[in-house]
Structures are given as structure tokens and as C-alpha cells.
Amino acid sequence: MTVLVTGAAGFIGYHVAERLLARGERVVRLDDTNPSYNPNLKQLRAGRLAAHSDFGIVRADIADPGVVVGCLERAGWFIWRLRRGALVPRASLRE
Fold first, then answer.
1. pTM for the complete prediction?
2. Can you tell me the distance from the alpha carbon of 54 to that of 9, in angstroms, rounded to the nearest whole number?
């Protein structure tokens, strides 16, 4: 089965994708690779996932409906994660 995971370079998405790959599922990561937090950590996680032959990536913005529909048509399941930056204004994180 193919599972679409958004935010697979983030903490939760990465661990979910890793677990799915360990189970033998095919994982497609839909991500715009924005620098919402430590880009080096995101690159490290993405590199670990990319080492799996059953891992693919679509670099695009989840706000693009054409891309999302195309990905969903190829995936049997999807895990939709909103990035932290979309949920909490960065200014409020410092308060």
C-alpha cells in the first residue's frame, strides 16, 4: 500500500513514515521543505527516509490543490500533518 505523509521531515511525520517503511509500506512525502525550524535536522531525517527504496518525495506546497489531488489519487492512505508554523504564530512561541 502507498501512504502519503505530509510533513515527513518533522518530528511526528518522520517517525510515522519510518514506522510505515519498517512495516513494508511505500511512503510518499509531500513537503515544501520550508525552514520552519532547524533545516539541518529536517535534511537529516529526509536523508534517512530517502535511503529506503520504498520512499518517494514530492516537493510542493500542500496549498496547491492540483498537486494534492494528484498525490491522493496515487495513494491508498494519507496522513495529513499541519506544520507547527501553520498552527502557532512564531511570535507566540517566544512569549
1. 0.76
2. 16
Render pLDDT for 31-41 as a digit per residue (tens, 0 to 9).
877 777 788 88
Backbone angles phi, psi at 88, to 5 degrees: -130, 120
Q: Tell me, what's the pLDDT at 82?
A: 55
Is 93 strand, coil or helix?
Answer: helix
CA dist 27 and 60 (Å) reads 16
What are the residues facing 55 on neighbouring strands?
Answer: 27
The alpha-helical segments, DSSP class H, found in the chain are 11-22, 39-50, 65-74, 84-87, 90-94
Q: Give domain 2-94's CATH architecture.
A: 3-Layer(aba) Sandwich (3.40)
- Cβ-in-10-Å burial (0-12, 13-18, 19+) of 35 comes to exposed
